[in-house]
Amino acid sequence: HPIIEGIDVHKRYGAFHALKGVTARFYPGEVTAILGPSGSGKSTFLRMLNRLEKHDAGQIFIDGIELNDDPKHLAAIRREVGMVFQNFNLFTHLTVLRNVALAPMRIRKVARKAAETRAMALLERVGLADHAHKYPIQLSGGQQQRVAIARALAMDPKVLLFDEPTSALDPEMVNEVLTVMRELAHTGITMLVVTHEMGFAREVADRVLFFDQGSILEDTTPDRFFNDP
Ligand code: ADP
Ligand code: ADP
């Protein structure tokens, strides 16, 4: 069954209709690139999926559980759906290691030592074990974004949402983040990636969604999207 299901999802900001009935299902292990012009609702759609914001109408199911106001559900959703933002959103007053260990300690009540051991393994995986005891500001943007990915992985989510993860980076740092994302894509985690990186969409994604003015205009394969006239 789908790990994420959105059925006729609507979102309005005042009079502005940002999502106009979006329906899409995402299956375990699928990597979806979400493309489309600025303002077309891509980021709004991602924020609906992990309940950073509420949808006004329609239904969203995460692993079969409908998103609603039940706080028990919200906690489950936050565990299953990780998110990586354009601007990293790291905690500036915590070391890199503590940034990655924090959510498992707070939310899953993992003991500090165990959480930090696992955080270290995740930092190794994104190539940053040597920077574990630094503060985010001492790292480059590309390194900070890799920390943010490790932090999202620390909760063992089934789904990772990426909202323009390379858009705030200097060009020379884009590849180190895309490389980590490419490796992740091969691990079987479900990924939804809002991006302007057409290379990633073409070479890594299984599927392309193209948003326009709050609707999905195309839902197809990268091959069809990039090669059909
Ligand atoms: P995209 O990610 O495709 O660039 P967004 O989902 O960020 O688009 O935004 C879709 C539209 O909704 C934009 O016109 C944006 O200005 C508007 N919008 C997004 N968030 C808000 C908000 N919190 N309040 C009002 N308008 C918003
Ligand atoms: P993006 O780069 O994803 O398109 P935006 O610049 O559209 O981001 O939005 C950045 C933040 O500002 C988001 O949290 C969004 O909800 C909010 N936002 C966007 N447009 C508006 C708006 N017209 N009024 C209020 N908040 C907005």
From TrEMBL:
It comes from the Bacteria. Pfam families: ABC_tran. Residues 4-229 form the ABC transporter domain. GO terms for molecular function: ABC-type amino acid transporter activity; ATP binding; ATP hydrolysis activity. PROSITE patterns: ABC_TRANSPORTER_1 (PS00211), ABC_TRANSPORTER_2 (PS50893). InterPro entries: AAA+_ATPase (IPR003593), ABC_ATPase_HisP-typ (IPR030679), ABC_transporter-like_ATP-bd (IPR003439), ABC_transporter-like_CS (IPR017871), MetN_ABC_transporter-like (IPR050086), P-loop_NTPase (IPR027417). Keywords: ATP-binding, Nucleotide-binding, Transport. Belongs to the ABC transporter superfamily. This is Amino acid ABC transporter, ATP-binding component. It comes from Hydrogenophilus thermoluteolus (Pseudomonas hydrogenothermophila).
